[in-house]
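Q: Entry one of two.
A:
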Amino acid sequence: MKTTEASNISVCRKLECDEDSGKKNCTKRADEDGSNVVDDDDDTSSMNSSDEALCEMLGFSSLGDIMATEKTTESLSSNHNNDDQNTSSTFEQGSSVTSTSSPSECLYNIPSFTSSEIKSALTQQQLNEDSNKVFSLESLIKRYENESILVLPSEISIPSSTMRKLANELIYGENKYPSDKTYETIHYLSSSGSSEEIKSRRVLTRLENFVSRHEGWYHLCHHTIPSILSTVLLQNEDDDAYVLYKEKLNIKPPGGSGFAPHLDTPSLRLVFGQDGPQHFITVMVAIDDMTSENGCLRVVKGEYNSEQSAPLVIPPDENGNPDAEGRAGAMPLEVADTLMFEDILCKGGMIAIFNGWIPHRSAVNKTAFSRRAVFLTYNLKSEGCFRERYYTKMREWRSGWRATRGAQGDADLEEMEKMGEFDALKTIPRI
């Protein structure tokens, strides 16, 4: 089952350099339906120099910004080391931060927003959209209920440099910050002279279960974001009203597949059934700019608040792969094709809130750079804290399924993942 936005085989254009000969092998990248081949030179034709291209990749407007960020980071690190001598708050790998005044807020430049700051920013956002409209939080909540998604203004965002730092420490600090990882096989067309060859490479596309192992992520996910949710949706400043259910950092590499249309709540409920949370809210924080070209989040705005109001989904296979056909929430393509999906364009660090019933998907990344975003799913604390149990349950579920398929060791497991990967890409609700 192949869609124009969720192709199971992505062919990306890639520029390879032969260090011995200095010869460049130019390859071609196909769009999401695999039919139109485009030239990657278009992605960087506006660059005047390699420095400018590097700045764009890193998310800076100039090399001066990089220098300033390095100096700020050094200063913050120095302050952090001094603070460690005077604070009783500790964070060890695999443990939880119990103090509400974590040094991570300073080290990682993670902002804390007061209720008045949030309300002021939201008021200005409303005035910019309609100067004649009287603003109230009640009207904002009503808008969220009517559209099932709310993109917060840039004043209520996380610095993009902070998000990149947090993401890079996870991606490149595997030994210090272990996490559950998912990989995807990217296929690309490599040209050398008059010959062409389809090659493939395995790339990291997702990290999960990392918040409790990283101080900065812990503070962001357990304090900053819940406080924003409480102010916006519950009109109070309690950062304990919402609890984290699960987290995932999605990495969509150049040529990376789009995500099939789906709903979140059916798959989230499937793990614990009636014994677990029934209502979910997902917070997306963009790490890189999210554009139509790099496969941004796409949603169908509407009043989706229950199973009855949501579009039809495909029943899960009880004996299927928990990361593919065994997972609930996938939408039939004939249903998705009747809906109007809208791009959610965000700058790095911007925050979007959406509920578990809104239909969403994304397209292939057609740019030369990865597109990263973190998706944090919350439930009300009154429904219980299930995060640790969720990951324990998923590990058991995945191990049980693999055992029924005869996986005896790491080699068998890797081969099984490769064989089942493309089928999973067609149906798995991965955002």
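Q: Entry two of two.
A:
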Amino acid sequence: LSPPRAPKSIPHSMADTKLIGFGNPLLDISAVVEQDVLDKWGAKLNDAILAEDKHKPMYAELAESHPVEYIAGGATQNSIRVAQWVMGKPGSTAFVGCVGKDQFGDKLEQAARGDGVNAAYMKHPETPTGTCAVLVKGGERSLVANLSAANCYEISHYETAEIQELVTAANIVYCAGFFLTVSPPTMIALGKHVAEKHKTFCLNLSAPFICQFFKDPLLSVMPYVDFLFGNESEAAEFGKAMGWGEELDVVALKAAAMPKESGSRPRVVVFTQGKDPTIVALGGGISKFDVDELPKEALVDTNGAGDAFVGGFLAKLSQAADLAECVRAGNWAARQIIQVSGCKIPEGPCTFA
């Protein structure tokens, strides 16, 4: 990890919390690799998988065979850190997940707090902090996540007074779909709170395997979802899993029309497609928003691009911006992040205007 910046003064009052994320805090171990490394570990570009036993030696091997970078990661935490940067005021965001009582966990907490995020981790005494191998080739990335402590999050932590105070203060709750592999009960509890209090619940499909293998927990949370995010491969896989086909406009409209617990407002579905237009489905209609092209030579890697998009989008959503402005902020944030390695928050105040 690069040296953490000095923590911004996070207010003791939790009343400043506008946005809270629940997810899997992971330390990214990032390396630029050759095709044979991807083949050896069965990893595909623009994909994310959970580590199996066969992947356990990969993390040490990578560190020995390639120059690696250690970067604070985890999809939800990335989005929250980007949102905090765009929102500006320290303590506007909070993040909850499980880390180990170890050096990596301490570094993740320092990184989040250094970015102004109120990190409220559950700390597991025996299980090490989770890691994620980020294999980069030609600017594209493949993720292999070893959740470790992140997999140990329990709803009992959600029910503590500290976390309840943060949840009560926040108007927007965000979870990556990856958290469906860890604690669906926590996500349903969040959904019920949001529906009852007329707040906003946001979910990301996160990876094709979530739609393939965690469809039941995904569908159990979906009634509470006000904003659904995904990229083109995740959206197509969701369409396949639901029997709708893989035409993205159709999938977006059908996902938007799924039953909803809070009937006071329609669901918004947002699908990104890299440099191709962002698709937004709302109220039976589709809007498309062009993405400013980035010169190929400026692209470093796409790791964190989708997370950054959500961060920029949610920052503006918390400020009651319209959908076009939320999408513009999302694509702007993604553009900044793909010009650096991993989801690194740029130094200095956000310059989005």
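A: Comment on entry two: Residues 68 and 273 are 28 Å apart (CA to CA). Residues 323-337 form the longest helix (15 residues).
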